[in-house]
Design brief:
- Helices cover about 50% and strands about 0% of the residues.
- By secondary structure, the chain is mostly helical.
- Bound molecules: protoporphyrin IX containing FE.
Amino acid sequence: MGGLDFSRRSSAAESCFVVVIALSLLLVTQVRAQNIGVGFYDQSCPRAESIVTETVREFNSRDATVPAALLRLLFHDCFVEGCDGSLLLDPSPENPDVEKAASPNLTVRGYDVIDAAKARLEVECPQTVSCADIVALAARDSAVLAGLNFQGLPLTMATGRWDGRVSSRNAAEAALPSSKSNVQQLTAQFSNKGLSQDEMVTLSGAHSIGVAHCSNFMDRLYDFPGSPNGVDPTLDPDYAAELQAKCPRGNPNPNTVVNMDPQTPFVIDNNFYSNGFAGKVLFSSDMALFNDFETQFTSDLNVVNGITWNQKFGNALAQMAAIDIKDDFDGEVRLNCRRIN
Ligand code: HEM
């Protein structure tokens, strides 16, 4: 009996110990999580944010497609291993299968902008500003440059992220949504990252800028199952004809790209939603937002109220930029964004 009592006492003590450890971990996580905040570099590198802004502006003045590239870069970084710059890591002999090599990432652009900002920041304040923060700030600046109207208020972006040391091609293949996903799959993938369905629909409005390769929507233009003329019946017929002219059967030039917003391809706005209801969005995943009962209503509200959408987009961008932040415990401030230290 005594033995039994002892084991009960010991298991009670063990449970107590586990609870204490769990609580302290929770506390530590919370305290660490507080390290991210607006103006993190105000003391350590006061010009950090303006250096990123100047760099993004400079690249944008030479190539107006840069903001689109940088917004997508943040999304693809944050959805895999959190917002930790893991997407920036080049393959190495130790790790040839990095995120960058995953198929959805093969068309990600904008690494040169991040490298340029990092080089300037290393001169200004060595070993201080993380690559993950540069990616987040550059995306914020891109939204502003593309005309996001945050009701005249500055679009703030918290900083204080650390750079990760892990980058996996398989993890990227699994976490990034495909242009063929349905609403349930998209909702689940965003929910896995702590983002709501509303935020998913809101952030999809980023597809009002930038370009897409024909391969991502060719299946809607030719031999579409069950369609008498082979075209996805949810596509506007005139738009489908335009797309067929740009992306001929067989995709002879795999580098051909098409603007995602036919009217204002460089302005981030709620056109994405009116385009969607008019059958003028490129991907089945985007089209699904307008045909699925669950997301139709939110999409409709975003058409009607562009001001609210702008605000929601700014807030959702900040939420996305806070996914699984690393700290000094599991991260570092890289010297070169393409290599771990
Ligand atoms: C909802 C799920 C999403 C899917 C399935 C998706 C898929 C895609 C695909 C297939 C492309 C075309 C890439 C190419 O052919 O070069 C693309 C481009 C783009 N995506 Fe998304 N995306 C999603 C969400 C987002 C989010 C949340 C953002 C940012 C907030 C975003 C921003 C962009 C931008 C700006 C481009 C244009 C990039 C460029 O011009 O290089 N996307 N997306």
